[in-house]
Amino acid sequence: MTTVICPYCFDRAPASRLPYRCLMMATGVRGGTPCDAEPDDVWAGFMGPSVPPSRRLRGPVFAAPRTLAALRGSATRQPCPGCGVASSVRVCRRCHSDFPSEYCDQDSRIIALVGAKASGKSTYVSVLVNELRGRVGREYNISLPAMGDETQRRDREMAEDLYERLQLPDTTRPAAMGFNDPLLYRLSVPRRGRYARSSRHTTLVFFDAAGEDLKSAEAMARYTQYLAAADGIILLVDPLQMGSVRDSGATADGPPLPAVETSPQQIAADLAAQLRSHGRSVSRGRVTTPMAVAVTKTDALRSLLGAHSPLLRNATHAGGEQDDDDRLAVHEELRSLLSDWDSGVLCRQLENDFAELSYFGLSALGAPPPADAPADAPKSGPQPLRVEDPLLWLLGRRGLIQVRKSRPASRDRAERADA
Ligand SMILES: Nc1nc2c(ncn2[C@@H]2O[C@H](COP(=O)(O)OP(=O)(O)OP(=O)(O)O)[C@@H](O)[C@H]2O)c(=O)[nH]1
Ligand SMILES: [Mg+2]
Ligand SMILES: [Zn+2]
Ligand SMILES: [Zn+2]
């Protein structure tokens, strides 16, 4: 059974239970009269006062029939009880938002992107999507089309700004100024083995929060629904916020250092508190939502890394598999760097709060923005490093991509005993 999570209000429902919206088409079979628009108070209530009265009039919503075909999910169109014309538009039963076509055909996975203001979230999403379609997509045979008109429009805009105009994203506006819709993508990955000719589809919902909204527990409460619904969280940590990195002079050639923002340990602590209070499962006091902690802007850290640091190159993805040894090498490298920078405060905080944790290091741009034009991408365009790793780890944990694990520790021990 397919479970659909509304990307707007995060209500979780079996796909077969979702109501339909009549499209009010003029080809009505019963006497040829189409349905009239009627006020959708549920939707208007959810959207708030910004929606003008004329836009509140919409096609009537009707319940899904409880026939066997509908319950099995094999009936994708249903006749409207008012006009008899079939509709395929599904809506959320709680907020009545329309879902893009195909949204309800597969399970949804919500990936929450959090991090302080200017930690690099919006730049990261734009580059990540581009890499998943290009270099990384080729290795895994992934396809990632944007779903729905709104995501398609924003997806095009993000790519044009960053890759054609070489402009970095603007600061993301806080939720108080109107909620930012999440980005919806349909991720298709080929199956392996017996089902090798088919693909597995998942809806990926990326929610790029405004750093502004994460600076206090109070402001974060606006995002509670979304954080509580997340299947995985990517916490971006800006190394240029760390006192010892700022003092090290490592970034002397780049643009001026950014203003000091909320500390990542503060965001992590508030996040864990939110998740606990919203009933996310907890194991021995730690939240079980998988947490990928990614240090961004590693291009600015080159002088602090050893010549063989795994952060200086991309993972190989040979054979369409994520290499777990490589991930662990990055994890160890970051854990030790982070611990050097703040005597382990952030790692201790995270490890006390989250049961499933992996550290990553990435650079969306591959080089600092030009010193004389800090709102631009480097002249050569983004040359990203390791942007895909955190998401692939989250997907791998759900069995959505293949992960190559090193030999199980128990077998290693047994072999050593034999020798
Ligand atoms: N050196 C370096 N700087 C980066 C990189 N990515 C982003 N930046 C810098 O960080 C700034 C903020 O990036 P955004 O992506 O807008 O950050 P954000 O987290 O979305 O910020 P808010 O929307 O305000 O929360 C950019 O303007 C760049 O100056 C990178 O890969 N390397
Ligand atoms: Mg942003
Ligand atoms: Zn909804
Ligand atoms: Zn109708």
Number of helices: 13
Q: Return the CATH topology of the largest domain.
A: Rossmann fold
Question: What count of structural domains?
Answer: 2
- Which residues sit in consecutive blocks of at least 5 with pLDDT less than 50? 411-419
- What is the gyration radius calculated from CA atoms? 23 Å
SS class: alpha/beta
The proportion of residues forming helix, as a percent range, comes to 25-40%
- The shape is globular
Q: In the CATH hierarchy, what is the architecture of the largest domain at level 2?
A: 3-Layer(aba) Sandwich
Number of beta strands: 18
The averaged pLDDT comes out at 88
| Cross-sheet strand order for the largest sheet | 10-11-9-12-15-17
Distance between the termini: 50 Å
Strand content: 15-25%
Bound small molecules, deduplicated: guanosine-5'-triphosphate, magnesium ion, zinc ion
